[in-house]
Amino acid sequence: MILKKLIEFLDIYKKKDPAARTYFEILLCYPGVHSIILHKISNKIWKLNIKILARFISHFSRFITGIEIHPGVKIGKKLFIDHGMGVVIGETTVIGNNVTLYQGVTLGGITNIQKKRHPTISDNVIIGAGAKILGPVIIGKNAKIGANSVVTKNIPPNTTVVGIPARILGSNSVDGADI
Q: Measured at the alpha carbon of residue 12, what is the angle toward residues 98 and 29, in degrees to the nearest 5?
C-alpha cells in the first residue's frame, strides 16, 4: 500500500519532468519530492497540536530543500514543485489537486491578522517561476499564472494572467484589464 502510493507520487514527477529518468533518481535528487514528504509529516504533527515539532520539521525541510511550506498548509493530490528553490507557501494556503509550482513562487499573506490570509489555489493550476500570489485570493481551476506575475485579486477559472499587476491574457480579456 505505501509502496503503491509512493510510486503514484513519483509518477507525477516522471510525467511532468522530461529530465526525470528513474524513480530512484527522483526520490534521491528532487527537492520538491523531499519537501512534500516532509510536509506530510509536519502537517500530521501540526494536526496533533505539537506545533513546535511541526515547525522544526518544516524549517529542517527548508534548510535541505530551499522550499518553505508551513506545516498548516492544506495540499491536495499531485502537487508538482519543479526545481523549487525559493518557493514559500504560507500557513493558511490551500492547494488543490494537480497543481504545478516553479521555482521562486510565493503564496504569501499581506496581513498579520489571525485569519485566512493566504491564497487558495484550485485544481490544475500552473504557477510560473517567480510569481507572487498575495493575500486570501482564489485562483480558479485551470488558471495559468505567468512567470514573475504579481496577483493580488481573484483569478477566474480557465484564465492566463501575466504582469505586475497581473492582467488577463486571451479572448476573455477586456483590453488587458488589471486583475
A: 125
- Give the start-end residues of each E strand in the chain: 68-69, 74-75, 80-81, 88-89, 94-95, 100-101, 106-108, 120-121, 126-127, 132-134, 138-139, 144-145, 150-151, 160-162, 167-169
Using CA atoms, how far residue 132 sits from 80, 109, 118, 160, in Å, is: 17, 10, 11, 15
Query: Could you give the CA distance from residue 37 to residue 122 in angstroms, rounded to a whole number?
Result: 21
Cell of 5: 502510493
Residue 174 has pLDDT above 50, yes or no: no
SS3 80: strand
- pTM summary value: 0.91
**Who contacts 2 (Cβ-Cβ below 8 Å, separation ≥6)?**
none
Mean pLDDT of the chain, nearest integer: 93
Contact 116/132 with Cβ under 8 angstroms?
Answer: no
Let me know how long the chain is.
179
Distance of CA 63 to the CA centre of its chain: 18
Q: What pLDDT, in 10s, does the model give residues 101-110?
A: 999 999 999 9
Q: Read off the pLDDT of residues 9-24 as tens digits, 9 standing for 90 and up.
A: 999 999 999 999 999 9
DSSP 115: S
Distance from C-alpha of 97 to C-alpha of 8, rounded to nearest angstrom? 14
